[in-house]
Specification:
Layout: H1 18-27, E1 32-33, H2 36-43, E2 57-58, H3 63-76, E3 80-83, E4 100-103, E5 110-114, E6 119-123, H4 128-136, H5 154-160, H6 167-170, H7 173-176, E7 177-183, E8 189-192, H8 206-209, E9 218-225, E10 232-240, H9 243-257, E11 261-268, H10 269-279, E12 290-298, H11 301-317, E13 323-327, H12 330-341, H13 343-348, E14 352-359, H14 365-376, E15 382-388, E16 393-400, H15 405-411, H16 414-421, H17 446-459
Parallel strand pairs: 2-4, 3-4
Antiparallel strand pairs: 1-2, 5-6, 6-9, 7-8, 7-9, 10-12, 10-13, 11-12, 11-15, 14-16, 15-16
Helix pairs in contact: 9-11
The structure holds flavin-adenine dinucleotide (FAD), (2R)-2-hydroxypentanedioic acid and zinc ion.
Zinc ion binds near residues 163, 387, 388, 395 and 429.
């Protein structure tokens, strides 16, 4: 089972029988996996921090198959764990006990793309990077981008309401997802796969499933609004002495780059140390306490570079930034981006990692890192801060040589209380999954959580979909 302290008791679901397996094999011939070696990697999360003990991995290809499986599991009272690319960071993507794993990996067909509207419709198991490559050939891009792009799937992105590196420009999936097809717990197919920008015919039901982390239904297809591929992209990597200067640079940047600004991200010198040490990525500029990654995306390279030049001149002469480098060429753009995208990977080599993903008023975000450092002293190996400054979203990560319950007790609830004091969110973009479910009350009122519970009961009366996740234990019906 999962991490001892967090592992909830198994609920009284049925156990998989030989008759159940026979049904699955008839429904999904050759795609009902029970070889423990093959099921193993789907039982463990990307961070290798939680592990389930499922003995069955199902790989449907069609919505109809998903519907048949869920209808059967619901009638048999068998628990199901929907799984996409298994890159989730809160323990939501793997079973806690013996839940059946329902993987969308083989549901990877693109259904349609409208070149005029930019609307893409595809199955949930399409890998984000493959969609990006498909769209780039058609002069478009996905409205989201994240470090896990090579493995995460669009269904998983929608199920977690993933934010990522472009949210500042293109907004959240609550705005860019136009339609969803979802299979409900009892096997009913809910077709909300609209491809309309505007549709006010009553409640916008698809929104319920965006960020529902596999607890309300299995997303089988997505239609999403994709922006045009920008003709001109520049990336700037800058260094600052203080976080206050970094914030002033953000303000200056918004004013001077305006509509071409597409990302404003940061990392601290501790992140840089981990990139240097564990991934051998050299610092592209001189050593500074803070680093900024700014991306511009526009339609006219002369116009964009003129604006960028003016901004950089102002940032340098006003001494907001101490050093910097600019990239326009694709390979250098990628290299600068990897300094930000690969921090998560670098951390995995530093030891056991405790992850926090909070939203706060932007001027507060780094204060949490310095307060945590002071609070923990020498007990932690590294305390690092990075994230999506433009969205007021900090990633605070703390490492130690091994799993350390005493260290954890010093971090939590300190970090949650700190966040609640400034009316922040204890999960800005990764969701609650298994690890954060019981901390929901730091960010949501009791009536709001109770209403979530009622919605869960309405859509999944037997609670078979991703049990033990997202909703706090005190709501769970046994
Ligand atoms: P999984 O990990 O397989 O599943 C995640 C959750 O969604 C689980 O609860 C699962 O049950 C559910 N789920 C998956 N597919 C479906 C479906 N079809 N229907 C219903 N439920 C489903 N997140 C961000 O928000 N921003 C980032 O910048 C970001 N960067 C990352 C970088 C790295 C290196 C890594 C490892 C992770 C990162 N993540 C980020 C976290 C993660 O949430 C995203 O990677 C991604 O959205 C998860 O997609 P997935 O297909 O891997 O889903
Ligand atoms: C990012 O922005 C991801 O890089 C991962 O959301 C953050 O690992 C983390 O804490
Ligand atoms: Zn992030």
């Amino acid at each position: 089972a999962a991490a001892a302290a967090a592992a909830p008791q198994r609920l009284p679901f049925s156990r998989v029988t030989v008759e159940d397996l026979a049904f699955f094999r008839r429904t999904l011939p050759g795609r009902t996996i029970t070889d423990p070696d093959l099921v193993q990697s789907s039982n463990e999360d990307w961070l290798k921090s939680v592990r389930g003990s499922s003995e069955v991995l199902l790989r449907p290809q069609t919505t109809q198959e998903v519907s048949q499986i869920l209808s059967y599991c619901n009638s048999r009272n068998l628990a199901v764990n929907p799984q996409g690319g298994n890159t989730g960071l809160v323990g939501g993507s793997v079973p806690v006990h013996d839940e059946i794993i329902l993987s969308t990996s083989l549901m990877n067909n693109i259904l349609s793309f409208d070149n005029i509207s930019g609307i893409l419709t595809c199955q949930a198991g399409c890998v984000l990077e493959n969609l990006t490559l498909y769209l780039e050939e058609r002069e478009h891009i996905m409205p989201l981008d994240l470090g896990a792009k090579g493995s995460c799937q669009v269904g998983g992105n929608v199920a977690t309401n993933a934010g990522g590196l472009r949210l500042l420009r293109y907004g959240s999936l609550h705005g860019t997802v136009l339609g969803l097809e979802v299979v409900l717990a009892d096997g009913q197919v809910l077709d909300c796969l609209s491809t309309l920008r505007k549709d006010n015919t009553g409640y916008d039901l698809k929104q319920l499933f965006i960020g529902s982390e596999g607890t309300l239904g299995v997303i089988t297809a997505v239609s999403i609004l994709c922006p045009r591929k920008p003709k001109s992209v520049n990336v700037v990597f800058l260094g600052c002495k203080t976080f206050d200067q970094l914030l002033k640079t953000f303000q200056l940047c918004k004013g001077m780059l305006g509509e071409i600004l597409s990302a404003f991200e940061f990392l601290d010198s501790e992140c840089m140390r981990l990139l240097n040490t564990h991934l051998k990525l050299p610092n592209p500029i001189s050593d500074c306490p803070f680093y900024i990654v700014i991306e511009t995306s526009g339609s006219d390279s002369n116009h964009d570079s003129q604006k960028l030049h003016n901004f950089l001149e102002e940032a340098m002469t006003s001494l907001l930034v101490t050093d910097g480098t600019v990239a326009t060429e694709v390979s250098k753009v990628k290299a600068l981006w990897s300094m930000r995208e690969r921090v998560t990977e670098a951390l995995t080599h530093d030891g056991f990692t405790y992850k926090y993903d909070v939203s706060l008023p932007v001027e507060r975000i780094y204060q949490l890192v310095t307060d945590m450092r002071r609070h923990l002293g020498k007990r932690a190996r590294s305390v690092v801060g990075y994230g999506h400054v433009g969205d007021g979203n900090l990633h605070l990560n703390i490492t130690s040589a091994a799993k350390d319950p005493a260290l954890l007790a010093s971090i939590e609830p300190f970090v949650y209380e700190w966040t609640a004091r400034f009316h922040g969110s204890i999960s800005a973009e990764h969701g609650l999954g298994l690890k954060k479910r019981n901390y929901i009350y730091y960010s949501k009122s009791r009536p709001a959580v109770a209403l979530m519970g009622n919605i869960k009961t309405l859509l999944d009366p037997k609670g078979i979909l991703n049990p033990y996740k997202t909703l706090p234990d005190d709501l769970r019906r046994t």
